Amino acid sequence: MTAEAAQETGTGPLPDTPPAAVEVEGDTDKVTDGATGEVTDGDTDKATDGDTDPGVRGDPDRPLRIALLTYKGNPFCGGQGVYVRHLSRELARLGHTVEVIGAQPYPVLDEQEGVTLTELPSLDLYRQPDPFRTPRREEYRDWIDALEVATMWTGGFPEPLTFSLRARRHLAARRGQFDVVHDNQTLGYGLLGLDRVGFPLVTTIHHPITVDRRLELDAAPDWKRRASLRRWYGFTRMQKRVARRLPSVLTVSGSSRREIVDHLGVRPSRVHVVHIGADTRLFSPDPAVPEVPGRIVTTSSADVPLKGLVHLVEALAKVRTENPDAHLVVVGKRPGTGPVAEAMARYGVEGAVDFVKGISDAELVDLVRGAQIACVPSLYEGFSLPAAEAMATGTPLVATTGGAIPEVAGPDGETCLAVPPGDPGALAAALTRLLGDAELRRKLGAAGRERVLARFTWERAAIGTVERYREAIAAGAGPLRARPAARGAARGTTRRPV
């Protein structure tokens, strides 16, 4: 079966029955306690529990055993990784046990009792410094690996599909060991039917990737680029089909809920809003950190139109005509080519824009604390963690009204200065106004933090998520019995400390 056909239909061999000719590695699981670091053998051929306690569906206070799936989990690469990191920690603090199951780039999790990481490796075809690499023959383990490479070779993005197939195989070996499975926007065919075979399923959709697709196609310079983008975003057809069949969908904002219903066709009754937020213990004001005159800080995880960084670069050039000290610090990778690099050269601001990446949490927080302004120039966001985190530090915010940003940032003039998305002139005017008004900066910064404390914390997110877990469990068909895992079904996985 071709990669395209598998993506379109979701058919083909079951993921736990690879072709006989494919040699796969044996069981290599090691279980490491996240709090103590003690390593023990993790024999997946033995169930960890006998009968699942029937009270799991009846006792509203019983701690849950949660499998949290994420095909991309590195918090330094985007919001999905931040979500997994903070949600897993807060779920554990509520008394639940969380096993994060992820592929490369692997999640970076906080050291917290009750949180463990299981690595479910892909071929990591997009790793640096050799993205779009061709694997060596000995790297292939099964037909899913072959599908992954074939999809990449034909210009597609295979990871949501192939991770879902590997995750299904892994879970099939561990039936009865989890009370609920929580998927973090994989939306692959392998997830379908999990709820009917003993795994109550909840899925988070941060926002439909169809929005990203539309914005990139609109910005494409020629037909060749548009054709390439359509092929790359081919996985969104699968995600739309899967989303429509999911029993319970969580999303992070009312704006995203509307987009999921409108773009993906999910029934409104199945989509529930659970706001996420900021780590307010970490992102907090510190008067000892000096304010750096003219510093504007923003976050851009990728050089894509959705992030609006091109418009902020143009706005910066306008701001500097009145405020020559104004400079931009971008948390993200400096692009060597592309729209942002071209804009910096065109407006002559290369020396006024710095990019930082790979910094620690403490360094990031101090960077934001020292800024006179935090800016979110995005054309669209499903939530905007950078907005919530900046507000939590007490740094005044200038943000667009794209997507869910107003839901987070609040009313214009009260908790932020709001401007239309894609309008460099309006962005420049707001930045100039705020740079010149210390009292307004103080007012917006204080009000912004109060808004986040009242509405957008990870503890609140975890509590709301558990409520949806229990609803999904209650909708199940009675208690489950653990069954012995099939030999080799969890092949290639490794559980590591967090």
UniProtKB/TrEMBL annotation:
Signal peptide: none annotated. Residues 78-281 form the Glycosyltransferase subfamily 4-like N-terminal domain. GO terms for molecular function: glycosyltransferase activity. Residues 1-61 are annotated as: Disordered. One of its GO terms (biological process) is lipopolysaccharide biosynthetic process. It holds the Pfam family Glycos_transf_1. Residues 43-61 have a biased composition (Basic and acidic residues). Residues 295-451 form the Glycosyl transferase family domain. Keywords: Glycosyltransferase, Transferase. This is Glycosyl transferase family protein. It comes from Streptomyces sparsogenes DSM 40356.
